[in-house]
Design a protein that fits this description.
The chain is α+β, with helices and mostly antiparallel strands. It folds into two domains: 89 residues, Beta-Lactamase (2-Layer Sandwich), CATH 3.30.450.80; 100 residues, 3-Layer(aba) Sandwich (Aminopeptidase). The protein contains eight helices and six strands. The strands form two sheets. A three-stranded antiparallel sheet has the order 1-2-3. The chain has a three-stranded antiparallel sheet with strand order 4-6-5, with helices on one face. A hairpin with a 6-residue loop joins β5 and β6.
């Protein structure tokens, strides 16, 4: 499970995991025997210098009660997870940085587009303009966030374009899928950085 979540950036309900194999069922049975609930979710948390943590909440109960709990408390659990990790890092102020694998151009572009979508939604921005080079044309198409091209200069690999992006919830969901980040986690990061109330107030300015 650690390997599974290390490769992901979003919250996963255990129901979405594969429990059909014999090894998985045996693992779950053993975990329950040690007091782990039959329901649960885990969220991968990333920190500075390649730090990784896994926050997990488990619960013993039926599907209906678990669904009600997650619907009511999911956001609070995400906040607690990041706050808990932040405090845990305070215990290791001299922690040696680990080697962090660089993101690919596609992953960087997808993460930036997702952040842009969150800013647009949080601050009530309907459009934003960006300048990009020729190689980004293919990348933007692959991540599902290609802009309306307003103008271009040059040809081939040296071409420079100006694009206009429109906010769309469908496009945001597609980009989130490409980054491996859930919309809930990206929304949480924006709220932690700006505060949901501050976003609403600033959106009214002007």
């Amino acid at each position: 499970m650690i390997v599974f979540f290390y490769q992901r950036f979003y919250l996963v309900d255990w129901k979405r995991l594969d429990w059909f194999s014999k090894a998985s069922r045996a693992f779950q049975k053993e975990a329950i025997s040690y007091g782990v609930g039959n329901q649960g979710f885990s969220v991968s948390i990333r920190g500075p210098n390649g730090q990784f943590a896994l926050f997990t909440v488990s619960y013993s109960g039926n599907d209906v009660d678990w669904a009600a709990f997650t619907e009511e408390h999911m956001r609070s659990m995400l906040l607690i997870a990041h706050a808990f990790n932040h405090k845990a890092l305070d215990l290791e102020p001299d922690r040696t940085p680990e080697h962090a694998q660089a993101l690919s151009p596609r992953e960087v572009a997808a993460a930036l587009m997702l952040a842009g979508g969150e800013i647009m939604e949080g601050f009530g921005v309907e459009h934003f303009v960006g300048v990009f080079d020729a190689r980004m044309v293919r990348i933007y198409r692959r991540i599902g966030s290609f802009p309306e091209v307003l103008g271009q200069k040059g040809e081939g690999r040296v071409q420079i374009s100006v694009g206009l992006w429109h906010f769309a919830s469908v496009a945001k969901a597609q980009v989130a899928q490409k980054t491996g980040l859930s919309p809930e986690v990206s929304r949480l990061w924006v709220d932690r950085a700006f505060g949901s109330k501050e976003c609403a107030e600033l959106a009214k300015v002007g």
